[in-house]
Write a structure and sequence with these properties.
about 220 residues; alpha+beta; OB fold (Dihydrolipoamide Acetyltransferase, E2P); five-stranded mixed beta barrel; two-stranded antiparallel sheet
Length: about 220
């Protein structure tokens, strides 16, 4: 037997007494634990089935891990596995897309290069004389093959060689074809009256005179 302080009147009373002799408050109720009435949440453990589910279907079972009772470690492992699976799926899909694109490009037959438009220097000059707009649509910014007879061999203000080919609408308007510096030796070996073939890029015209650059000799 022990003496305790009554919770109601704060006087000494025996812990074996049914009630406080001073105020009549029940002693037995005062001896009950303060948290006896509170329900302790049940601790959940990850069973075998739930563990297999988390491994196979991480999205669904990661949601189950949010339910009360699971430990922090269980939730961390579950969501880490979910993130790992999602990253793996995204990487697999990206690799699959790249593989399909590669296979598609390999399966398609390579497109043959469009044949170059072939024209003589005289025809080129006549096209520009008739209609500059139509001539630009056909030749400007495009590569074409031109054949003609050398009229003159010159250099521009920057020292780059160019040749004029006979066939202009007059002797003062001969089509011009600029060679790049790599073909300076080729230009140095040309002579008037020599028939040559070049592959050039059209540059439009200057006062109805066809201009071309990036010319590469064919013969």
């Amino acid at each position: 037997m022990a003496l305790i302080n009554c919770a109601e009147c704060d006087r000494m009373a025996s812990d074996q007494a049914a009630a406080c002799p001073h105020c009549g408050a029940p002693i037995a109720e005062q001896l009950l634990p303060a948290n006896k009435g509170a329900k302790k949440p049940a601790s959940r453990s990850i069973g075998f089935a739930l563990g297999v589910g988390i491994f196979l279907v991480p999205v669904v079972f990661a949601w189950f891990l949010l339910r009360p009772g699971h430990s922090t470690a269980s939730r961390v492992i579950g969501f880490a596995w979910l993130a790992f699976i999602l990253i793996g799926v995204a990487g697999s899909e990206r690799a699959s897309t790249q593989t399909r694109a590669t296979s598609s490009s390999q399966s398609q037959p390579a497109k043959a290069a469009a044949p170059l438009n072939e024209v003589s220097a005289q025809q080129l000059a006549q096209v520009y004389e008739r209609n500059t707009v139509a001539a630009d649509q056909q030749f400007k910014g495009k590569r074409f093959r031109v054949t003609g007879t050398v009229d003159s061999i010159n250099t521009d203000l920057f020292g780059k060689p160019y040749v004029t080919l006979r066939g202009g609408v007059s002797q003062f308007i001969e089509p011009q074809f600029k060679l790049d510096s790599a073909h300076r030796n080729y230009a140095a070996g040309l002579q008037q009256g020599l028939r040559i073939t070049l592959v050039c890029r059209g540059r439009g015209d200057v006062a109805k005179t066809p201009m071309s650059d990036e010319c590469v000799p064919v013969n």
